[in-house]
TrEMBL record:
Pfam families: OEP (PF02321)
Keywords: Cell outer membrane, Lipoprotein, Membrane, Palmitate, Signal, Transmembrane, Transmembrane beta strand
A Gene Ontology term for the protein's cellular component: cell outer membrane
GO molecular function: efflux transmembrane transporter activity
Places the protein is found: Cell outer membrane
Organism (species): Pseudomonas kribbensis
UniProt name for this protein: Efflux transporter outer membrane subunit
Role of this protein: Could be involved in resistance to puromycin, acriflavine and tetraphenylarsonium chloride.
Signal sequence bounds: 1-19
Keyword Transmembrane: yes
């Protein structure tokens, strides 16, 4: 037994002695460095919004229309893009199971029967023309020792990739919810625009009727009549375009929820939406690392590529593989389980790369390049995250200020219109004056509807920039040794 052990270990010892002069990865390393959260300051945001909690997972309820939540849930169930991402998660988990299985021994059994005829040259007696039936029964075993942790590193790389894929699914759900909310808001705005254009068309119809009467009385000329008729025709065209926008918004919304064209026709007019009351959390940007799914997914991919580099490095080291088999081989059925028919073998193998024309070094260089790429992507996502918050906050505050001013303008226009109506009824102004003043009121209300729509979009964008209620499980903050 001692001599057999020495024979098995001798090749390993020789391989280790030769390793110093064999293929190695000296001088190969990655260059990227993870951006620290402190390198992405956000102090300038603190005075723009009051501190508050992070968004809730059902942040869309704050927009004030329960039907929006139902549409988002419908999109979660039917959107094909989301289903595609879910399939990628399943694929990543299947690959993880494969990497896990590779860490364990393999064992299989085989049985067979061979019927044949021996030629004279195959028959040791020299007679030939003999028939035989060979029966085989064997159990095979193989195992590759993970001496350097390469298989575990490959499994951990697959585990981190699977985690990234699962977070990608959460990110896709957030993006889908944001797009549905914005599409729903666009539908609400399209309805408002159509309603205001209808009012303007009614105003111009009255103006044409009045001008035609004045033309018949000789108070206005034909040019004035043609002018207001042209304005009415233009208003009719604008109204047709506004109604088209409603249908397009419906179709876009039905596409997002993963339904056909018929579903678009069932979408009703949204109620008056309101912008979410949004405030910035006090721990921005530190907690943003775990609140933004795209940041979390990018970090998991860095960890996955780091573990992949570790796995590639182990291919430079000696490898031990053990293959064994045991069974029975007989030419007669009654001898199948006899002692003389039994066999076994054990074959340990040691392999060490000596010359491969640079293949292993190229593999490692490619792995380090992928690691650098994932680090750069993480830094880009982290750097852009706070910019997205800043942009959303800036837009939100700007639209809030514009809305305050525009509401004053609408209030003044409404007062002016009410006064013109009173003066017209009192005989102090003409109906023409009242119609002209109404035009300004409609224009101001159109502008206010636009600002309200943009304000809602900005609040939704800020919800998304803050992670939309996502919260990752504890992600190891300590960087891998390779980073």
């Amino acid at each position: 037994m001692y001599s057999i052990t020495r024979l098995m270990l001798a090749p390993l010892a020789v391989s280790i002695l030769l390793a110093a002069g064999c293929v190695n990865y000296a001088g190969i390393d990655h260059q990227g460095k993870l951006l620290a959260v402190g390198d992405a300051p956000s102090d300038s945001l603190k005075d723009k919004l009051p501190p508050a909690q992070w968004p809730r997972a059902d942040w869309w309820t704050s927009l004030g229309d329960p039907r929006l939540g139902a549409l988002i849930e419908e999109a979660y169930a039917s959107n094909p893009d989301l289903q595609e991402v879910a399939a990628r998660v399943a694929k990543a988990n299947a690959f993880l199971d494969l990497r896990d299985a590779e860490r364990y021994p393999e064992m299989d059994a085989s049985a067979g029967v061979t019927r044949g005829r021996l030629s004279r040259f195959e028959d040791y007696s020299g007679e030939g023309e003999k028939y035989f039936t060979a029966r085989n029964l064997a159990v095979n075993f193989s195992y590759t020792f993970d001496l350097w942790g390469g298989q575990r590193a490959a499994w951990e790389s697959a585990l981190n990739s699977a985690r990234a894929a699962e977070v990608d699914l959460q990110s896709s759900r957030l993006i889908l919810a944001v797009n549905v909310a914005k599409a729903y808001n666009q539908l609400a705005y399209a309805w408002q625009v159509s309603e205001l254009n209808q009012r303007d068309l009614e105003r111009l119809s009255k103006l044409v009727e009045l001008t035609d009467s004045r033309y018949g009385s000789g108070l206005d000329n034909l040019s004035q009549l043609k002018q207001v008729q042209s304005l009415k025709a233009r208003s009719e065209s604008t109204l047709i375009g506004a109604n088209e926008d409603i249908e397009i918004a419906r179709l876009q919304l039905s596409a997002l929820i993963g339904k056909g064209v018929d579903r678009a026709h069932t979408l009703e007019r949204p109620s008056n939406l309101q912008a979410s009351v949004v405030a910035l959390p006090a721990q921005l940007p530190a907690q943003l690392l775990g609140r933004r799914p795209d940041i979390v997914a990018a970090r998991w991919r860095v960890e996955a590529e780091s573990k992949n580099v570790e796995a590639v490095k182990t291919t430079f080291y000696p490898n031990i593989n053990l293959v064994a088999a045991a069974g029975s081989h007989a030419l007669t059925g009654d001898a199948m389980f006899a002692g003389v028919s039994k066999f076994w073998n054990v074959a340990p193998t040691v392999s060490l790369p000596i010359f491969d024309a640079g293949r292993l070094r190229s593999d490692l260089k490619a792995g380090n390049a992928e690691l650098d790429s994932s680090i750069a992507q993480y830094n880009r996502v982290l750097n852009s995250a706070l910019h997205e918050v800043a942009i959303s906050v800036t837009q939100l505050r700007s639209f809030e200020q514009q809305i305050v001013v525009q509401r004053d303008a609408c209030s003044i226009a409404q007062s002016s219109y009410d006064l013109s109506q009173s003066r017209y009824k009192a005989g102090e102004d003409t109906f023409l004056d009242a119609l002209n003043i109404e035009q300004q009121l409609i224009q101001d209300e159109m502008r206010l509807a636009f600002l309200n729509s943009k304000h809602i979009d900005s609040s939704v964008s800020l919800m998304a920039a803050l992670g939309g209620g996502f919260q990752a499980p504890a992600l190891e903050t300590a960087q891998s040794s390779a980073l």
